[in-house]
Write a structure and sequence with these properties.
Strands 4-11-5-10-9-8-7-6 form an 8-stranded mixed β-sheet, with helices on both faces. A 3-stranded antiparallel β-sheet has the order 1-2-3. The longest helix has 15 residues. The radius of gyration is 18 Å and the shape is globular. The chain has 238 residues and is an alpha+beta fold.
C-alpha cells in the first residue's frame, strides 16, 4: 500500500467524497456528505469552525449524519452529537484463494433485490443502508429457498481502495460460513480489478474481527464513529 493511500485512510469518507465518489456527494471545500438517499455518512477535511459551518448548511432539521474521525469530535452548540462507538479500520493483506465449500450459490444483487436486502439489514443491523445504497458498488447475496439469507457489498472507494460493507447473515443461517464465503468472493473481485479491500468494524464485535483476521485483514487503526445533527433534530438511530 502506497503512502498516499495510507493518508487517505485516516479520513476515509472525505477521501471518497472528494475523489471517486465526488459525483454522488454534496458540499464544498471544508465539508461534504453523500446524497442522503445513498448514505448517512459525511466528513470534514478538518474539524474547524469553517468546516462545521459548512456541514451545517448541508443538513436540514430532520437530517442526521455519521462521521469517522481519528479524534473525538467537540462540535459547536449548533449541533447535537452522540458517540456511536469506536471501531477498527482493517485492510486486507491477503485473501484465501478459495471460498469455503457450500451447496449454496453466490450471485450479484440488483435494484430489484433491494426490498429483500433492506429486510435483511433491518433484522441484522450491519450499519446504515438505504434504498439506493446499492448504487455505491457491487453487492453479492446468497438465497435459500428464494429467501435472501446473506449479503455483502461495496461502499466507499478512493485511490484504489474499496470498502467492504453490509456484511450480514440471517440469524437462522449463521454458522454455515456464509459471511466467509461472501467476503472471499467480493475481495477476490476487488483484487482482480487491482483494488485493495478494507472495512470498518465496531471494536466490540469480536466475532467479526476474528473472522476478518482469519481472512487476511489486519487492524490498521481505531476510528471514532459520531452522529451529528442540527441541535433541533433527533439523534441518529442505528
Amino acid at each position: 500500500m502506497r503512502d498516499a493511500q495510507v493518508a487517505m485512510l485516516d479520513n476515509p469518507v472525505w477521501s471518497a467524497l472528494t475523489m471517486d465518489q465526488q459525483t454522488v456527494s454534496k458540499g464544498g471545500r471544508f465539508a461534504r456528505r453523500y446524497e442522503p438517499a445513498l448514505s448517512v455518512f459525511a466528513a470534514m477535511e478538518q474539524a474547524t469552525p469553517d468546516a462545521y459551518a459548512e456541514l451545517g448548511t448541508l443538513l436540514t432539521s430532520a437530517d442526521k449524519v455519521a462521521l469517522f474521525t481519528t479524534q473525538i469530535l467537540n462540535p459547536p452548540t449548533s449541533f447535537d452529537a452522540s458517540m456511536l462507538g469506536e471501531g477498527y479500520q482493517m485492510v486486507a493483506q491477503s485473501i484465501p484463494e478459495r471460498a469455503p465449500e457450500t451447496t449454496l450459490q453466490c450471485f450479484d444483487l440488483a435494484p430489484a433485490d433491494v426490498p429483500d436486502m433492506q429486510e435483511l439489514v433491518d433484522l441484522t443491523k450491519p450499519g446504515p443502508f438505504t434504498a439506493r445504497t446499492i448504487e455505491l458498488g457491487r453487492y453479492l447475496g446468497i438465497r435459500q429457498q428464494g429467501a435472501l439469507v446473506a449479503m455483502i457489498g461495496e461502499r466507499m472507494r478512493f485511490g484504489g481502495l474499496v470498502e467492504v460493507s453490509a456484511v450480514c447473515v440471517h440469524p437462522d443461517h449463521r454458522g454455515k460460513r456464509l459471511a466467509q464465503m461472501l467476503t472471499v468472493q467480493l475481495c477476490t473481485r476487488i483484487r482482480s480489478d487491482g483494488g485493495i479491500p478494507f472495512l470498518h468494524v465496531y471494536a466490540a464485535n469480536q466475532s467479526a474481527i476474528a473472522l476478518y483476521e482469519k481472512l487476511g485483514f489486519v487492524k490498521r487503526r481505531r476510528l471514532h464513529v459520531t452522529a451529528l445533527s442540527l441541535a433541533s433534530a433527533d439523534p441518529i438511530k442505528e
